[in-house]
Amino acid sequence: MPANIPDIVIGRLPVYLRALTRLAQEGHEVTSSHELGQRLGISSAQIRKDLSHFGGFGKQGTGYQIGYLVEQLRQVLKVDQEWEVALVGAGDLGSALAHYKGFGDRGFRIACVFDNSPQKVGQRLGDFTILSTDDIEKNIRERGIKIAMIAIPAEKAQEVADRLIGAGVRAILNYAPINLNVPENVRVQYIDPVVHMQRMTYYLT
Amino acid sequence: MPANIPDIVIGRLPVYLRALTRLAQEGHEVTSSHELGQRLGISSAQIRKDLSHFGGFGKQGTGYQIGYLVEQLRQVLKVDQEWEVALVGAGDLGSALAHYKGFGDRGFRIACVFDNSPQKVGQRLGDFTILSTDDIEKNIRERGIKIAMIAIPAEKAQEVADRLIGAGVRAILNYAPINLNVPENVRVQYIDPVVHMQRMTYYLT
After folding, report:
1. The CATH number of the domain covering residues in A7-76
2. Among A47, A56, A173, B38, whose CB has the most other CB atoms within 10 angstroms?
3. Residue ranges per domain, chain B?
4. In chain B, whose CA is at the least distance from the CA of A126?
């Protein structure tokens, strides 16, 4: 695996993978950086440069074999396996995530759902029985889970993150609208619809 | 308003605003680029440079008045007003968004909810009566709505986006796992939990 790839490049690879998977579903077998760029609103030069970090995956002038490129990108991103994911929070958002069908064929499977509400613990949520947040450490450690989604109010998010990390989690998708302080060996990605929308209103006239 | 601010700078302003609002809620009145940077995992130099695009908002050595900086950032991001937002999709995710309490005090209010299912149209969803997607144009135009959230399957997302844009929408928060082709005067932000997680698995060992 090549070292020192800029994180911004890594961040584009899942977007390429998603678009390529869709092209394959539509029956395409070959594509070009030009075609892919048009779909994504990214320049073809950018795409070629990004992929060149990993050897290029294509021959000059013949385009990319989509199936091959998909497999290579899945390997690079380590989603040629299925990662178990812990979900903390069984409210409206947590329930939507627990029911979401789009994880499985893209490298992830929710393995357990936690909530701190006595009314919810023990109840069914989709395929899951909701576990108590008291049991976070035990379950995360036993299963060796490395990835968690946090879908709880901001006030509790740091405490839950600390406990997840203490039990071995190294990647957190945080839906709580607050920044988390984590050790250097832990990654956090943030999803906050308001932050995304505020970034657009700046440009509205 | 200063021109030609890099979009990556604009993208950090909502994160600063969120952290500053929380500092204010915690009772702080003054902060520094150092303190803010520690909370956010961003260097203090980066924060000062970002804010300097807009005049700086602080005096050398005395830090930032949080209340004043919050108001200034809200003005810059144009969220010192309340934007009406159209939500398309009343499934699990759309329902979670319709019930979400965190929009109001940050500049946004869901104004109408659309779905294409005859079983859902006319039903209540939180404070809303679900409208038919057939009525997208009429409602968007009448209300002058500029912002929409798309929470429907990928297959229908481009068609819905085209219709929203035709009716006047200029900013789309797209939860459908597909890239949208939009005119240059329209902004799109994407939320796809799998893309965020795939960006982290690359780093997991």
Report:
1. 1.10.10.10
2. A173
3. 7-76, 83-195
4. B92
